[in-house]
């Protein structure tokens, strides 16, 4: 009888060991599945973020080049204004500059 009990105990231990191994394998498989799922989710988020940044970049590029004609016109207008200002100032002081130059050229120092 004792040997029968010993056989039953060994059988129980083997069954428990097999059950434990099955549980460990199931946990490993579940972990691998979850890691794959997490990687796929992360890849999806990265792709969405990259697409968003690309859209923002393209919008900025189109904004800066889309109204380049307006920028050119604005710059031309500013340039014309500055040229006009310089010509006005030059005309205003040109007589004084000419007089000063004539004074220094015609004055002889000892």
From TrEMBL:
Residues 59-68 have a biased composition (Polar residues). The keyword Ion transport applies. Gene3D superfamilies: 1.20.5.2950. GO terms for cellular component: vacuolar proton-transporting V-type ATPase, V1 domain. One of its GO terms (molecular function) is proton-transporting ATPase activity, rotational mechanism. Residues 57-77 are annotated as: Disordered. Keywords: Hydrogen ion transport, Ion transport, Transport. It comes from the Eukaryota. NCBIfam families: V_ATP_synt_G. Belongs to the V-ATPase G subunit family. V-ATPase is a heteromultimeric enzyme made up of two complexes: the ATP-hydrolytic V1 complex and the proton translocation V0 complex. Catalytic subunit of the peripheral V1 complex of vacuolar ATPase (V-ATPase). V-ATPase is responsible for acidifying a variety of intracellular compartments in eukaryotic cells. Subunit of the V1 complex of vacuolar(H+)-ATPase (V-ATPase), a multisubunit enzyme composed of a peripheral complex (V1) that hydrolyzes ATP and a membrane integral complex (V0) that translocates protons. V-ATPase is responsible for acidifying and maintaining the pH of intracellular compartments and in some cell types, is targeted to the plasma membrane, where it is responsible for acidifying the extracellular environment. This is V-type proton ATPase subunit G.
């Amino acid at each position: 009888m004792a040997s029968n009990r010993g056989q039953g105990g060994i059988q129980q231990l083997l069954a428990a060991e097999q059950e434990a191994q099955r549980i460990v394998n199931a946990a490993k498989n579940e972990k691998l599945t979850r890691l794959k799922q997490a990687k796929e989710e992360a890849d999806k988020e990265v792709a969405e973020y990259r697409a968003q940044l690309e859209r923002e970049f393209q919008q900025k590029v189109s904004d800066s080049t889309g109204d380049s004609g307006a920028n050119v016109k604005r710059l031309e207008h500013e340039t014309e204004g500055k040229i006009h200002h310089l010509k006005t100032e030059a005309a205003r002081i040109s007589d004084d500059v000419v007089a000063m130059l004539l004074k220094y050229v015609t004055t002889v120092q000892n």
